[in-house]
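Project standup — Tuesday

K.O.: blocked on the structure for the chain from last sprint. Re-posting the sequence here as requested.
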Amino acid sequence: MATFRKLLFGSFRCASTWYSYGRGLANVSLARQTLGKLAPVVKRNWISLSVAGALCAVPVAQADISHEALIKRASSLVTDSANTYLSQTTLALVDSLTLYAKAIRILVSLQRRYEASASRLSPADEDAVWQVMIHQREEVVSRREQCKRFESNWTTAINLSELAAEAAYNAGADQASVTARSSLDLAQAQVERVRQLALEAEEGLRESRAEHSPRLEPAAQPMVAEEEEIPEAYLRED
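H.V.: unblocked you, prediction finished:
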């Protein structure tokens, strides 16, 4: 009886082992079939490029695509990005030049109004006017520095757009190249127009001498006078 139990339990254990093994083979087969179906779909819709350790996936519409087509598409994307950067830097430079020219015109106007009414102003009113003019001079200097920063960014954007247009042309993306060239011409025309207004404002500033008034250098005059009053005997080397 004990021997019969051992044989029965051994049969059950062997059957359970073969059942588990069969289920494992079935799962492996099912996984292989699923991956087999998934691979063509991934291959048909995506092409993966690994650059410097980073994964960049480019969607494509067909399974077979040439390197030339990928380069052409990439050059179009480059021109789009360059055009966006150029548009933003152009807008920033145009706005800064406009505000710079406006600040100059306000300063020149204040200077002319002061010169026209200086004889009728009391000392307190004259000091108040000069405080306003000094503040406006600081505004002009600040706007000028801002223009320099934005112009540096804009120059970089111009160079990038020129390179992007050339790359698109060499890759056969003619439409992208033409669009980039058009954006370049438009940006340069807009900046040149506003820059001319700023140059005219600077010319008026130089003529009015509002930015370099002697009133801003009160401490320099006594030092010069003291140097002139030094006796000549102390300046000789005996």
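K.O.: great, moving the ticket to review. DSSP finds five helices and two strands in the chain. The CA atoms of residues 118 and 125 lie 9 Å apart.
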